[in-house]
TrEMBL record:
UniProt membrane topology term: Single-pass membrane protein
Descriptive protein name: UDP-glucuronosyltransferase
Record family assignment: Belongs to the UDP-glycosyltransferase family.
Organism, as annotated: Brassicogethes aeneus (Rape pollen beetle)
Domain of life per record: Eukaryota
One GO CC term, this protein: membrane
Alphabetical list of CDD domains matching this protein: GT1_Gtf-like (cd03784)
Pfam families cross-referenced by the UniProt entry: UDPGT
Signal sequence, renumbered to the chain: none
Lineage of the organism: Eukaryota, Metazoa, Ecdysozoa, Arthropoda, Hexapoda
Amino acid sequence: MLVLESKCANILFFASAPSYSHQSMYQPVWKELSLRGHKVVAITPNPLRDSTLTNLTEIDMSSMYETIKKLVPKQGLQKLLEKPSFFMVFRKDPIMTYLFSKYSELFFQHENMQKFLKEDRQFDVVVEEWIYPTFAALGAKYNAPLIGISSLGAPIPALDTVGNPSHPVYAPDHNLPVGRDMTFRERLMSGLWAVYVRVLYHLVVLPREDALARKYLGDDLPYLGDIERNVSLILLNRNPVFHRVMPMVPTVIELGYMNRSQTKKEMDPELKSFMDNSKRGVIYFSLGSSIPPSSMAKPILNAIINTFVNIPYDVVFKWDAAEFERPKHILLRKWVPQSTLLAHPNLKLFITQGGLQSSDEAIINHVPIIGIPFQSDQHSNVDTLEKYGMGKMLDYEDITEERLTKLIHEITSNKSYKENAVKLFKLYIDHPKGAVEKAVWWIEYVIRNKGATHLRSASMDIPWYQYLMLDVIGFLIMVFAAIILINIVLIKLIIKFALIVFRRYKNIKNKKNN
């Protein structure tokens, strides 16, 4: 009889972002951990509510969706509906970090979170959503190894916590609206951003969030900046085929390809009938979970609706407000099982904001796109899809009925976009291990080894001036200056000696002549 040793661990999985697209990437990970026998506590706004997962305890924070709506008024949402620009990113970052801070405090104050914090619990590892630093303090509270996880890439300050290089030219911050071929202006602004975001983070964000963490978790915590610098690993939902290739230290793990087939949801009867019975093919329009289409400027919204009214295709329009008068070939839906819809054979085109999860699902289902980016990594994602030839970018402010109609006809009538989507898909999924399996393996690795300090980059333990080689540069400048100074002195001495010799020679010559 074969007996296998099984070691189960107590795992805290903390994912606070009120966004289904974020949570849908984390859910398969904590589900798989529980299925492997680990006792998992998941604190999330999107609990699975699966009674068969007996090792899973979910702290339901779903009411935070309503909280975030109150925190970000409609006027604030209007700011998201702007063409991405450097000025907008520089201006928005202090505002967004402040809103994150307010949201974090409201999360701490939530009844279910307060109840959880009062319980006497021990964890072998804390897996924390690595977007904002506040809740990294949970790793110190439970004296457990800390793992960061992100449903997309990581901003510069997050990469700094493990000493991962983030060069502003070949690896610019994913929040910047830059394409693959950066202009001089984009390189200049990326360099300025790399300095600006670090100054803001260390002088404003970290001190503020450190005070917030101490307020709710106790004043005996180490400084938050020190806590996050001791993170064991960062798991990123990055795929080197799709994202910019950049150097990664051993403590940054690119998960690659997240297979969501296990979480696909069925279409409701009306939507299924609409898709199945379409003779002309279907176009799907969605701006994701954070961009409400009803908030778009009326001229742009009217241009989009008029386009859908007049094109020879059926349209599924993800719409967030009251229904409006429309022809039968346009179906409005407040919620759509997106992955299932994109997999339908009658779907021709996906008009999207270009979020990573939407881009990922478009690639997996070989669906060409028209991308209308607004924020975060959306510009970079759409630019990448365009470079691979599976879609086109359309700036929000440039939307007209004529332009949108022209793009729709171009992409649906040219089979190369579909073919390029298939080519990208084959590259995208060509990995030795799926993202869920890789994430679980690394989490268990940290549990087995009680952390991953042996993988820590040496850059984390040297002074900043040594990291930037300022002492070496300073020394070389001093040597160079000393060589120049010595040469100047020698030249002066040689000239002085030559003049003395010349004068003596001249005096001797004059005496002979006399």
